[in-house]
Description:
The structure is a single chain. The model has no long low-confidence stretch (mean pLDDT 90). The protein is α/β, with parallel strands linked by helices. The longest helix is centred in the first third of the chain and has 17 residues, at 62-78. An eight-stranded mixed sheet has the order 7-6-5-4-2-3-1-8. It has helices at residues 8-20, 62-78, 104-113, 160-169, 179-184, 193-205, and strands spanning 4-6, 26-33, 46-53, 81-89, 118-122, 136-142, 145-148, 154-155. The radius of gyration is 16 Å and the shape is globular. The protein has a single domain (4-205), classed as Cytidine Deaminase, domain 2. Residues 4-142 form the MPN domain. Belongs to the EMC8/EMC9 family.
Amino acid sequence: MGEVVLETAAYAKIILHAAKYPHCAVNGILLADATKIRDGARNQDLDIVDTVPLFHHSHNLSPMAEIALTQIETVAQSSNRVIAGYYAACENFRDNTVEKCPGQKIADKIAEYFPSAVFIVVDNKKMVQHLDSPAIKLHKYSDGKWKPKDTQVTFQTQYTLETVSHLLQRGVQKDLVDFDNYLDDLSQDWTNLGIEKLIASINASNTIDCDEKDYR
């Protein structure tokens, strides 16, 4: 398995999604930088530059998934990105395995078209406001199954965990929009550009002070 690097915004959206709906299973899509992808290659390095939150209650509705994936793919292509994986958090606090995660068929389909795809499972037991280690587990598709890997995720910056902890403490998760939210109200932004801008401003200053930031 190649190295998997997560940019801060990509990791933040995963954690914020799980934190917004702690009573629900959640899932989403991983987007990688297409300029660093070798077509058809397996086990290549991935730079996960963004994540798109999908659902917190429509996991088993295939029409909803098709609508979401079509829109995501269109936007990804326009920004030179590729669908490179899937993430999910289980509903039960003690469940942290792929087998208990929702929407595995989506993950399997992604792996069919992108051999280097990864499956990220949120480690519910590490989901606290003060994150001091990655709250995710990496999985790779092999022999028809998603198998856990010992490979540790690498973050783009050393401030990622601190930044995400701060976002959680400030309650930014309440403003995260997934496709369930979007389909209920089409005026909402499923790309979460406001949150991305907030994170970018924190990264630019290398400070953790967003009290006065307007990210809506």
